[in-house]
Amino acid sequence: MVYIRAKKVKSDQYLYLVKSVWDSKKNTSKQEIVKYLGKASDVDKDDIPTDYRNDPKILSVLAKFNPKDIKKREEASKKSKQQLFQKLTDGDIQGSLKIYEDYIKIFNASDFFDKILKPVMYKVGDDWAKGKISIATEHVASNVAQTLVKIIMERVSATGSKKRIMICVPLGEEHHLGCDVIETYLSIKGFKIYNMGTSLPTESILSFIDANKPDVLLLSITLEDNLSAGQRLVRKIKDQFNIPILVGGFAFQSKKIPKFDAKIIVESTLEEIPRLIRTA
Question: Does the 69-154 domain belong in CATH 3.40.50.800?
Answer without folding.
Answer: no
